[in-house]
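Hi R.,

Here's the chain you asked about this morning:
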Amino acid sequence: MYIYNVDFVDTSVIITEPYFNFSSIQESMNEILFEEYQFQSALRINAGSLAAHHFFHSHPSALCCLLVDSGFSFTHVAPYCRSKKMKDGIRRVNVGGKLLTNHLKEIISYRQLHVMDETHVINQVKEDVCYVSQQFFKDMEVSQMKGEENTVVRDYVLPDFSSIKKGFCKPPDEMVFSGKYKTGEQILRLANERFAVPEMLFHPSDIGLQDMGVPEAIVDSIQSLPEEMHAHFYQNVVLIGGNSLFVGFRERLEAELRSLAPAHLPVAVLQPANPICYSWEGGQLLAHSPDYDEVLVTRDDYEENGHFICEEKFDI
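And the predicted structure, written out as tokens:
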């Protein structure tokens, strides 16, 4: 991170951290912000809380929302009522983008080409080619067919960082099913990997993780909360984080939630236009709101009260 022409002494900072972060890490962060960089004021907050602030700002009539934040390291399910975090309902699924990319690397290395050292390239492959299946077993059958009957298979051209700076997926009508390409391009042929990798978000047990899938985690979270609030959460499930950009993720999650939720409750899964920056945009809104000064800690407060004032104000 590079910051130019910023005087920290006159600057306020918002910094995000995971739910239930270790107190030792929180105290170290306080020291870095106030003692090393000497920010004028600071706010430590969960990314989900910023996203909830954005949601309630955009939907002023909503009472509750359930944030599903599926990012790099893990997926969090966090319920909010009027921007207030309900800690008893927070659930974590230990599946994130890093695990999906690593799993795809292992599959490709076993089946085709050693790519264990090519994390950046395979992460791009994952983002370009993978999708969430709506009918897993039907797609699995199609992926085993031969020739043009196989509508799942795709050929991905790997970058050589000379003439091809970034990899890309060949259009289906340009794919060669018999023989080899004459262009000399290095090709990855992907079939069931395209949907089997994102499937781990729904069935972590596929790779031996003793964890709930995202739909079960959502239901478990809502069931732990007062019954009169359930309807409000089911109709305001909000997706943020990079994994929510998989094609078909929102539709599959909504379908599975519909099958798990009580029949009389409406279910709606909402996806913002930019789920990756949704929390950042929430922080921007918060920083310009009249309530901002009430939630932050100033350097003077910290110097007078130490870590105690941060623990009191930052509801992490």
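The first strand starts at residue 12 and ends at 16.

Let me know if you need anything else.
M.
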